[in-house]
Amino acid sequence: MKIAFLFRSAPQGKSFAREGLDALLAATAFCDEEEIGVFFIDDGVLNLLNDQQPERLLQKDFIRTFKLLDLYGIEQRFICWESLEKFSIVEDNLIISAQKIDRTLLLAKLNQAEKLLTF
Questions:
Q1: CA–CA distances in Å: residue 9 to residues 29, 48, 54, 65
Q2: Domain of 47?
Q3: Burial environment of residue 112 by CB neighbours within 10 A (0 to 12, 13 to 18, 19 or more)
Q4: For residues 51 and 25, which has the higher predicted lDDT (pLDDT)?
Q5: Could you list the residue ranges that cross the membrane (predicted)?
Q6: N or C terminus of the chain: which is more exposed, having fewer CB within 10 Å?
Q7: Strand pairing partners for 116?
Q8: What is the CB neighbour count within 10 angstroms for residue 115?
């Protein structure tokens, strides 16, 4: 994998996650889908929750845009299993599917990437 996108910030409060998603989708124009990996850890797993209501916080709803990862063919998607447990999130509550792996394996995969972008 050439580029790894690491989402570790919650979707509300700051624009890191939205900017990361924009950068990820832009990168698909320049890279093959197998060259891109997407990782969710810590508060970043909150970006994948269904039924969010950001408009109640006067924020734009960008979460549904994560569904475009399927359309763009990005299959290297990983979620930290421990982070899901921390927030008591079950797979049925996620907006996209991703491989659940432990933190150690997730960090090992990140170290294999040529470039790491953290949001």
A1: 24, 11, 15, 16
A2: 3-118
A3: exposed
A4: 25
A5: none
A6: N
A7: 4
A8: 10
Q: What is the CATH number of the domain that holds 37?
A: 3.40.1260.10
pLDDT tens-digit readout, 54-72:
566 556 667 778 989 999 9
Question: Which of 48, 62, 50 minimizes the C-alpha distance to 14?
Answer: 62
**Sequence-separated (6 or more) residues with CB below 8 Å from residue 9:** 16, 17, 20, 43, 44, 119
Q: Nearest CA to 89 among 117, 32, 118, 49?
A: 49
Q: What percent of the chain has pLDDT over 90?
A: 73
Domain count, the chain: 1
Residue 5 to residue 76: CA distance in whole angstroms: 10
